[in-house]
Amino acid sequence: MARHIENDLNRFRLIVRGKVRSELRKYITEEDMIGRQAGEYIAIPIPRIEIPTFRFGSRNSGGVGSGTGDHIAQGPDPNGAGRAGDAPGSHIMEVEMALEELADLFGDELKLPRIQPKGAEKLLEMKDKYNSIRNTGPAGLRNFPKTYRQALKRQLATGEYQPSDPRIVPIREDLRYRSWTSLPSPRSAAVIIYLMDVSGSMTDEHKAILRQQAFWIDLWIKRHYKEIDRRFIIHDALAREVDESLFFQIRESGGTRISSGYRIISDIISQNYPETEWNIYIMQFSDGDNWGEDNPVCIEILRDQILPVVNQFSYVQAQTSYSSGEFQKLLKSTFENNNRLVMSEITTRDDIERSIHEILGHGQ
Amino acid sequence: MSWKNHRLNPDLQCLQREIEIYASSYGLDFFPTIFEVLDYDEITEVAALGGFPMRYPHWRFGMEFDQFTKGYQYGLQKIYEMVINNNPCYAYLLRSNPLVDQKLVMAHVYAHNDFFKNNCYFTHTNRNMIDQMAKNANRIKEIIETEGENAVESFIDCCLSLENLIDIHSDVIQRGSIDDFELDKAGDEISSPGRLPSKAYLDPFVNPPELLKSEFDYIKQKQNRPKRFPEQPERDVLLFLLNNAPLRRWQHDILEIIRDEACYFAPQGQTKIINEGWASYWHSIIMTRHCLDSSELVDYAERHSGAMANAEGQLNPYKLGIELFRDIEMRWNLGQFGKSWEECNDREKLSDWDQYLGLGQKKIFEVRRIHNDITFIDEFLTPEFCHRHKLFSFGLNDESGTYEVESREFPQIKQRLLFSLTNFGQPIIHVSDGNYLNRGELYLTHRTIGSLGLRFDYARIALENLNRIWQRPVHIETMDGETPTLLSFNGSEHTETILADVSIKAKPQKIYRREG
């Protein structure tokens, strides 16, 4: 059996990424690879390309179900259309998983080092994790499937089980309860401060990239801390704090004075987030242009007020055709040996993975 | 890969022989069966290729593979059984499965195999499809060598977009044979049409020669008018295209391959419920009566009920199938069928009805031979069955956009169920004119049921693909709500015409520019 499916898979991936046969791209369903959903859960949609055929519209569609009818399954295709074949379970599915699991998968995939929170050794607390089963416990923790199975086994073994009257009555020995183990975990809190340059030159495409990237960085940092705060600052010549939705939408024009943003960051930190209690992360998104005379001020604030207190300062530069990218060169030359400053460049969506790796690859 | 042993180990070989004996002892009649033991990545690959080890290169197999692999990694789905309609019949076992699962799968496979061999809808399928698929794959690879990957792939996509336009019965019956049309020819001789009886001296007035001539000309003209093309609406659109579209040699080959493979899979789509029901019925009998070790009972029960479970509100074809077979067996054992049973109104008599016929086994074997899903449901779904299994029909509420329970009445349930199975729930589309407006344009008709029209955005793209094959303007007639509508595509522009009165040539109402 030759393994030529790999070729098909690569071809499919190329199409999904739009590298070849770009006319197929418009048939890709679930293009947005990740979406935040209510509560803790998130769906990882699996991209599919559906070749359009002549098929029924949704009008008057329906089907047959069984049961009480309280929940009607919204099958992938209520018209019952299905590809022939005998392989079971070939339907579109959505994976539901907790954010924590997703973060772990993501970390494994990118081989990211775990973040070592500051002061992890000092601030420990015992945390309960429900991960085992035992024979005694409070009624509220009773595990029904395990209990049922145990009772069924016992009744079969003793011959109590009557197929004509399949009644399963657990006795005391059958009962099973969920149980916990206490594990030490760092009690710590983190704040992520986002700073973005909104001066005209950032395109919508760049913002879309940054939003995706911000989601993953959030997710990963969140995985390591119990409590997390997020602050958003935009700047052109002046800076101000905004809420999350505005942060990713707003577009202004005007000059660029990065120091204005740094000042606000410095204020926020000194007023609300004492470094002894908080792990501080700063993400700056910029196109690398700054007003020349402002540069020395930036360096000064960064060196004296920001870098000494943060876990990591990440500078992400979006490469556009008309930006000079000089600010990055400046940072590079000034803070060459400071490992708290991490820099990354991004041009297209394909760079996201690499960029995330550059930013989170230090485990600090 | 090749160094791995896919043969059964001695234990499993014994098991296969044992199960084969049980299966034939009940009268199951099957092709020789070859089991292969595969790891998960291998079984996933085979499943992605529709069960075949060799298929032509195409991205959609990669897509399926991606999905199966992710589904398995996240612990959401697992492929349990896979069996191919072929002689010998190939089936796959997952290496990591516990023994009880292997037994179950084997028992299940033998019943599928029996179904493939004996069900009449499979009579015309190619029993050497594994080889055929491999040949098709080689042919397409050859074409790729000369035409290039992108050209071939995009043509395959184009064909796949029309893949459902086959006649699922084309192998079994021949529609509209030439003889039907010979009848018309008898009336060819024109005597003197419209001549009225009259006395000789009145004849020039009663039957004016000019009038007779004009009528004669009219009839002559009518006879000479070109025959319709196709003479009768053609259900097998792909076959029509193969015979008549201006395809290049390689395009013709690809379209033929796509059609052949679609035709091969069609009977499996037509017999999902009955086939799975049959296999589940037999694995249940073979397992519980013979194979099961007492230590495996609970695991087996869990597996079986898992496969039979109706997810909340859904209808599981395995469950529906097995229960219908059991219902049929019970009814024919007790004689609960026929005139006297149906006409009996005495409740007490009905509840104790038993004529000691014992025809159950015989009946279910007959059912597996002659029925497909539609006839199976049509014949054997009873009001009592619907009630017992709490079936209901549901529909889309256009206002709220959600699905709501419509009815628990038998006729509605049956109607919904049959509708969802008719033509696999695909629209029925004919070629009604291959020379529309005498301009070589292709006119398809969607035979609508009620007001259920096509999905327009998809239909437009499918029309573009059809146009690519036909290379002249293409049209399809369908319903937009209550209004008959004609969708057309002339190679650059989509138009949508309301066919309010077919006799009046309506003007296009809306014009859509082709995207991209």
Explain what you see.
- The complex is a heterodimer of chains A (364) and B (516).
- Chain A has 364 residues and is an alpha/beta fold.
- Chain A has nine helices and 14 strands.
- In chain A, a hairpin with a 4-residue loop joins β2 and β3 (41-45).
- Chain A is extended and about 90 Å long.
- The two termini of chain A are 46 Å apart.
- In chain A, 29% of the residues are buried.
- Chain B has helices spanning 10-25, 40-48, 59-73, 99-118, 129-147, 149-160, 179-182, 203-206, 209-224, 237-244, 249-270, 272-291, 297-308, 317-334, 338-343, 347-351, 360-370, 373-380, 383-388, 410-421, 456-470, and strands at residues 33-38, 82-84, 89-94, 391-396, 403-407, 429-436, 441-446, 474-480, 483-489, 493-498, 510-513.
- Mean pLDDT of chain B is 85; it is low at 177-188 and 502-508.
- Chains A and B meet through α1, β4, β5 and α3 of A and α2, α3, β2, α6 and α11 of B.
- β5 of chain A pairs antiparallel with β4 (391-396) of chain B.
**Low-confidence parts of chain A lasting 5 or more residues at pLDDT below 50?**
30-43, 73-96
Rg over alpha carbons of chain A: 27 Å
Content-based structural category of chain B = alpha+beta
Shape of chain A: extended
The averaged pLDDT of chain B comes out at 85
- Main beta sheet strand tally, sense and closure of chain A: 6 strands, mixed
Element-by-element helix/strand order of chain A: HEEEEEEHEHEEHEEHHEHEHEH
Average pLDDT figure of chain A:
75
Beta-strand content estimate of chain B: 5-15%
Separate helix tally of chain A? 9
Shape of chain B: globular
Give the strand content of chain A. 15-25%
